[in-house]
Specification:
229 residues; mainly alpha; Leucine-rich Repeat Variant; 2 domains; 62% helix; globular
Length: 229
């Protein structure tokens, strides 16, 4: 219902959403939240006391703004310059992550955000690196930049990042042909490592499966030569 309301309001909601997406919790907010949990645990043992609701933190506004932006999808393309500006600020990791996923949902109209998103490939947090690759694949722009960087990240130590690197390359199809040697090398290397804990016979979360799919999408002939069926 809330998503539908945002779609009806449309881009008129964007100025308010931009304010909300940068909201973060202060040290005092966190202390108050912790205190409220302590108080609530005590109050439950006192039937004559009314238990107050959990405080509404600024970070809840950021989460709601993220959901609203993502409901707008490509309609939110007019906000891309402001979202890029926010990425250049020292926002908390949660807010930064929200913005990356918003740009992913905006898709190709977020092309101007590619350089800012690429910076996250050097982040220390693997979730941040992987989410950046996911966004770059969804945006699908600037293949000359993204393909080169994603091919390098195939060597990342984290399986989530490797998988997202392969999926990002797959999204570019034949435009990612320059990554074929890196994909073949990655498949050979990964096959010698301990098996990924698969949930299914052909688990899409397995980096090897992702790399095989990417190779078939980019260069079917090279995939056949590498033994990928």
């Amino acid at each position: 219902m809330a998503d539908e309301a945002v779609r009806v309001i449309g881009t008129n909601a964007i100025p308010t959403l931009l304010e909300m997406i940068s909201a973060s919790d202060s040290a005092l907010d966190i202390k108050l939240l912790k205190w409220s949990y302590t108080w609530r645990r005590w109050a439950r043992r006192q039937p004559f006391l009314r238990i107050a609701p959990i405080p509404h933190l600024p970070s809840y506004d950021a989460l709601e703004a993220s959901q609203a932006f993502r409901a707008l999808g490509p309609q939110a393309s007019v906000a891309v310059p402001d979202l890029v500006r926010l990425l250049d600020q020292d926002l908390p990791a949660m807010n930064h992550g929200h913005i990356i996923l918003i740009l992913a949902d905006i898709g190709p109209p977020a092309e101007r955000a590619v350089p800012a998103v690429l910076r996250d490939l050097h982040a220390s947090n693997p979730i941040r690196r992987g989410n950046a690759l996911y966004a770059l694949g969804r945006i699908g722009a600037a293949p000359e930049l993204v393909v080169t960087n994603a091919a390098v990240v195939l060597g990342d130590p984290d399986p989530y990042v490797r998988r997202q690197a392969a999926r990002s390359l797959e999204s570019f199809g034949a435009e990612a042909r320059s990554s074929v040697p890196a994909l073949v090398e990655a498949l050979q290397k990964w096959s010698l490592q301990p098996a990924y804990p698969r949930r299914f016979e052909r688990d899409p979360d397995d980096p090897i499966v992702a790399a095989q799919d990417a190779l078939k999408a980019i260069d079917p002939e090279a995939a056949a030569k590498a033994g990928v069926k």
